[in-house]
Amino acid sequence: MFWLMLSKPGCEMTVEKDKYILLADDDMEDQEILKEAILSVHPEMTIQCVWNGQEALNYLAGCPSGDLPSLIVLDYKMPVLNAVDVLSQIGDHPLYKSIPKVVWSTSRQPEHIRLCMDNGADRYFSKPVSQAELDQLVRQLFEIRGGATRH
C-alpha cells in the first residue's frame, strides 16, 4: 500500500528519503501506470505525484533538506513549466544536485533529449509501449536511484 498526495504545496510527509519518488506528469493514466509498475517491484516506495512543473518546484521548495525525494521523474511536456524549465531551476541547486533526475516522455525528438540532458537530467526515457519496456524502465530507474553519487 502507498500514500499518494496530489498537488500539495510543500513536503508534509514523513517517510524515509530513500523510499520516495517525486513524479511530475500531467497525464493521470501515465502516473498510474508508472506507480503500479514501481510498486509491483518495490511496494515499500511512496510516490508523491504532482501535475506540472510548477507544482514540482513548489513541492521541492517546501521540503526540509532531510525529506527530499531519492529520485525525481519528470514528464517532458507538462503545462505551466515543462521538464526543461524544472531542470534548469533545480539542476545546480545545492539541495537538489545529488538527487537523480530523469525525464520520461512520448517525445523522441533529439532536441528535447539534448535540452533535458544539458539542463541536468541523468537520463531521458521514451514512455514505454509494452509491459516489457515498462519493466525495463522501472529496473533502470532503480539503478539510477541507487547509483546517485553526485555532490
Task: Summarize the structure in words.
The protein is of the alpha/beta class. It has one domain: Rossmann fold (3-Layer(aba) Sandwich). It contains 5 helices and 5 strands, in the order βαβαβαβαβα. Strands 2-1-3-4-5 form a 5-stranded parallel beta sheet, with helices on both faces. α2 runs parallel beside α3 (83-90). The protein is globular, with a radius of gyration of 14 Å. The N and C termini lie far apart (33 Å). This is Response regulatory domain-containing protein. The modification 4-aspartylphosphate is found at residue 75. It comes from Chitinophaga cymbidii. It holds the Pfam family Response_reg. Residues 20-142 form the Response regulatory domain.
Q: Please trace the helix and strand order, writing H or E for each element.
A: EHEHEHEHEH
Q: Describe the largest sheet.
A: 5 strands, parallel
Look at the helices and sheets and give the structural class.
Answer: alpha/beta
What number of domains?
Answer: 1
Question: Number of DSSP strands?
Answer: 5
Rg is: 14 Å
CATH top level class name: Alpha Beta
Please tell me the CATH architecture by its name: 3-Layer(aba) Sandwich
Mean pLDDT: 87
